[in-house]
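Q: Is it fine to ask for two folds in a single conversation?
A: Yes, each is treated on its own. Send the first.
Q: Here.
A: Result:
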Amino acid sequence: MTEHPTSSLDDVVHQRVRLGILAVAEEARRVEFTFLRGTLGLTAGNLSQHLGVLEKAGLVTIDKGYEGKRARTWIQLTKAGKKALHDEIATLKTLIRQLEGPGALAGPGGHEGRGGEADPGSAAAPAPG
């Protein structure tokens, strides 16, 4: 039996906030802490905790410095961080292809599984058009 794609998801990367951090950081050479905090809608403490996990895993570097007289914290993906993000996206694409492939689940809101049996509590959606 082939391993299910979800078994390849990385627990460090897959967590919603950390995936968001990596995705935003991938879009720029480096990203500033307050930009990340605002973009992801996080508190400073929550963002710091997740950045600590990513830094410990070697997926980001955190540089503190000054821009003028203002203290700044910059986050940058490492080579390993870029690979981990791209691997996670590839795994998610595999999962999506599997779910959308032949015999996949019924359309939006449908509950029909691969065995062809509909969920007894659900009504079949009408065929398009």
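Q: Second one now.
A: Result:
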Amino acid sequence: MDESPSVPASGDPLRFDADEADAIAELFNIGMGEPAAALSSMLGEEVHLSVPSFAVSTRARITREVGGDLEDGSPVCAVRGAFTGPFTGEAMLIFPERGTLALVGRLIPVDPDAEAPGEMEQDALTEIGNIILNGCLASLSNLIGGELSGAVPGYGSGAPEAVIGSATDPVLFVRIDMALAAGDARGHTLFLLDIASMDAFRMAIRRALAGL
């Protein structure tokens, strides 16, 4: 995915300047650092994160982009939850089924013949999602000086379009790819911010930028 924001022409309210773009990437990079370190300690293995990328996009396009990274369009397992505060949206942690089994296999015994996560594996992924998503939201709250409250994340699975959605309304999409050092579990952390709260998001970014 292009790491520069896909924005309309100058003057459009969805446009971000270079300083704002850099600040968004830095904020989410910092926000993910502590929860990723906590997960690494829990798993006993390094968790690699990509540089955060973002774009003004749609759920339909995001589904195509993320789904295209998965093996043969395989089903995905997701932990997701809405968040509210100065700006609102939805946070997701998504792994393909085989990656999910490899990931949670660091924590609990997994049947080597299993093709899809069972109840115990789903619970383990939900706990991992809670650490990553709410941990990142807590860090972002400190950085922007305003509380972001996340709902208790819930588990879901299915085709990417069933999990991410197929709506064509614009959203601000922040993506951070995740991978275990061994390479057998690769997934994505996604933050989909409502365009209706874009002005509040921009103000929060500017406050955080002033404090960095």
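Q: Anything structural to flag on that second result?
A: Two points. The first strand starts at residue 47 and ends at 49. The beta strands are 47-49, 53-58, 76-84, 89-96, 149-150, 154-158, 170-180, 186-194.
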